[in-house]
Fold:
Amino acid sequence: MAVVPPFPTLRPTGYDWLDDEPVFDPARHLQLEPPGATTSLAELGYSADEIAPTATPVAFSEPFRVLSDEGAEVLLEVARRLRGHAVRAGDRIQNTVRGGCYRSAWLRDLCCSPELTGAMSDIYGTGVAPHTMPVHLGHLNYEPTEVGVAVDKWHHDTIPLDFVMMVSDPSTLPGGRFEVFVGTRQEAAALAAIGERPPIDRVLVPDFPGPGWAIALHGNMVVHRGAPLDSPAERITMVNAYVALDRSGDDQSRSRDLIGLDDPEVLYAEWVRHAAWRAAGRLNALIDEVGFGTGAAEAADRLEEAVVDVARAVEEMRAGLTPIEHYE
Structure:
């Protein structure tokens, strides 16, 4: 287990705080209520071997409350003020804001809240921390310009663990449902290969009672999407990402998809810190675990495994832009 690097004290060039924001107060702005139940990766069809290197066997939760009425109102106002920074995420999402926690102190303090992080650890059944790459904190998605276009296409996330929270009131929306495929990534890929999408009888539509309610996801293992709206409406969701404190498992982050999406001023510095944090934990474990009698082959394998995230980051940074993955 480990402590993650703190949120940076300095902001990137060109990022200014929103003015006249309220101060985040967990006593006023949070109303944490645990989900009624969770679904496991095994229930989606993943094998024991596929689950073993992941952060948790949990796939997703039922909707659970995160924000009080006042907190939901503040978040909606923050999201509306940040909309002017929206960019397109390849051919997957038309309007998204990344790095919002460098612009909104309220959003930063919500996403890094120890109370919220503790609640997410309880849901996942393992210790977690806000993602070590802050671009993944407080990610906002907005409705597309055209009616009938998916808010976010069928995909699995670039991050291991996260929640999707309704910012605008879901009860007022004409369509735009959040949908989960009850199946594996491999099944979704096989359907996409023949030009098909998840069949309706294998699509779960969680019922969000209102804004400020969320669903916890094992993001890079669960295929999901934001469905199209039926008529023009404001639809805003927020995604907050987490990392497992136990670094012995796979990273599960897919940072290469962020090239061309995230601001280079921010992306590479955060990516370096994330890969270094992962490797530092694994290297420190080797100091305690490797003893006399270790052979050359085993020693080399253990070292190579410890720095696999660094090696992958170097390779992907040098490879440059690649298409953002999705299943449509």
The chain has a mean pLDDT of 96. The chain is about 30% helix and 15% strand. The domain at 26-245 is CATH 2.60.120.620 (Jelly Rolls).
